[in-house]
Design goal:
alpha+beta, Methyltransferase, Cobalt-precorrin-4 Transmethylase, Domain 2, Arc Repressor Mutant, subunit A, 4-stranded antiparallel beta sheet, 10 strands
Length: 215
């Protein structure tokens, strides 16, 4: 990547496929962004760029590169595919551009408890990386396995689609109350309908929303 291409990229601002970080001071937090890109459609992480789109660069890019790579090896499961470009800004300063590819094995987790090998998954929503819900994790996992489900159009499904005929979206909790179902059962129905292509899922920090697919 050339410096001109970097300036053009930065001018787009942070978004679904682009994240800026001033430096690698908190690599464990940066892992959230990388996991979110890997669990979504991929993206580019720029280290050495401020939120205001200025380019202070990194004074010691070798050290920052080492820190990020070490954190990826330590915290991310499964391994994330990426390419790295270093764009010089001038004498002894550079920006690191990590191009993160969508993972073929999802969800990617950021591991926090190394004894139990457990952590959290994240997905990209606009210019933010949000924690993936149970439903999102299930859909990522089953889609990654190439699973698509049919569904039975029963009483609960009729209740759901009547509601979606009058309202644009529904949450898991909302559907559970509407249909008088335990949350887990309501979740399973919504996941199954999403995998079947009847619903679309819109992740959010507060509560995921499901909408009927048109056409």
């Amino acid at each position: 990547m050339t410096l001109r291409e970097l300036h053009k990229l930065v001018a787009q601002g942070e978004g679904q496929h682009l994240e800026f970080k001033r430096k690698a001071a908190h690599p464990d937090k940066i892992m959230r962004e990388i996991a979110a890109f890997a669990n979504s459609q991929g993206g580019q992480l720029l280290i050495g760029v401020d939120d205001d789109q200025s380019l202070p660069g990194l004074k010691h890019p070798d050290e920052d590169e080492f820190v990020i790579k070490q954190a990826m090896a330590k915290h991310l499961r499964p391994t994330v595919r990426y390419e790295l470009n270093r764009v010089p800004l001038g004498l002894h300063r550079a920006v690191l551009v990590f191009h993160i590819y969508p993972s073929e094995e999802r969800p990617v987790f950021v591991i926090y408890n190394f004894k139990r090998n457990t952590g959290r998954a994240y997905v990209r929503v606009a210019d933010r990386s949000v924690q993936a819900s149970r439903e999102v994790r299930q859909i990522l996992k089953l889609n990654g396995q190439g699973q698509t489900n049919g569904f039975t159009y029963g009483e609960h499904e009729r209740t759901l689609f009547r509601h979606l005929g009058q309202h644009s979206t529904v949450t898991v909790e909302g559907f559970a109350r509407l249909a008088g179902l335990p949350r887990e059962t309501a979740s399973d129905i919504l996941v199954r309908l999403t995998l079947a292509g009847a619903l679309s899922l819109h992740p959010a920090e507060e509560a995921d929303e499901f909408a009927a697919k048109l056409g």
